[in-house]
Design brief:
Largest sheet: 5 strands, parallel
Number of helices: 9
Order of helices and strands: EHEHHEEEHHEHEHHEH
Radius of gyration: 17 Å
Strand content: 15-25%
CATH class: Alpha Beta
Number of domains: 1
CATH superfamily: P-loop containing nucleotide triphosphate hydrolases
Distance between the termini: 12 Å
CATH architecture: 3-Layer(aba) Sandwich
Bound molecules: 2'-deoxycytidine-5'-monophosphate
Structural class: alpha/beta
């Protein structure tokens, strides 16, 4: 609960966890059931990586990336199915941020404190009033340490790689399982070992392992958690 009492539009639901744990699907369905807005925070990091690539800013140059992240107008348009679609300076870039290259790019740019600082304000602005499901890596630990509901969603690396391959195939991108598994493990290491806001469950979060659990079951469990937190 925030210090100043209740939020205007409901509670904040934080869903954190590694890539491929099923966060986006589950978060979308949960937000729909609760009548909440969904915020895909990974898309913001992807947007910074994409804009950097287009403007010739190095993914290792933290200061330049921070300045870029602060200058970009990042926002979301809602697709009819409730999927948030990233806009950069008013232009929809949802498809271009979903490539394996931008997955890696986002993981790189997200290491830099100036980037995280620049995106913090946007995320807090989107969630402050409540009535929102935010999915990411550090929502429950850093962005909304006072979130009413905190869920850490996880699954085995093999399951996550398999899901990513299927996901990419649906979008017409062919990916090999072994390579994808390696990328998943690389990203896990990078995301959980970085100094700033590493990927880890908040002390007061509920961990939900989705390995072998049907999606409907996972959503039901999360809805239970969110409802008992006041959603
Ligand atoms: O969830 P995703 O795959 O779209 O995220 C892309 C990258 O962005 C991921 O490797 C780590 C980073 N990220 C982050 O550092 N903090 C967040 N809240 C969300 C994503």
């Amino acid at each position: 609960m925030p210090k100043d009492g209740k939020r205007a539009r409901g509670v904040v639901v934080a869903i954190d966890g590694p890539a491929g744990a099923g966060k986006s699907t589950v978060a979308r369905e949960l937000a729909r059931r609760l009548g909440y807005v969904l915020v895909d925070t990974g898309a913001l990091y992807r947007g910074v990586a994409l804009a950097a690539r287009e403007r010739g800013v190095d993914w290792q140059d933290g200061d330049a990336l921070g300045a870029l992240a602060g200058a970009l107008r990042l926002g979301f348009e809602m697709a009819p199915d409730g999927t948030p679609r990233l806009t950069i300076d008013g232009r929809q870039r949802a498809a271009e941020i979903r490539t394996p290259e931008m997955s890696m790019g986002a993981s790189h740019v997200s290491k830099h404190p100036p980037v995280r600082a620049a995106l913090m304000g946007i995320q807090r602005g989107l969630g402050r009033e409540g009535g929102v499901v935010l999915e990411g890596r550090d929502i429950g630990t850093v962005v909304f340490p006072d979130a009413e509901a905190k869920i850490f969603l996880t699954a085995s690396a093999e399951v996550r790689a398999r899901r990513r391959v299927e996901d990419l195939a649906e979008r017409g991108i062919e990916a090999d399982f072994e390579t994808t598994l390696r990328e998943v493990q690389e990203r896990d290491a990078q995301d959980s070992q970085r100094e700033v806001a590493p990927l880890k469950p908040a002390a007061d979060s509920v961990t939900v392992d989705t390995t072998g659990v049907p999606i409907g079951e996972v959503v039901r469990r999360l809805e239970e958690i969110a409802r008992s937190a006041g959603a």
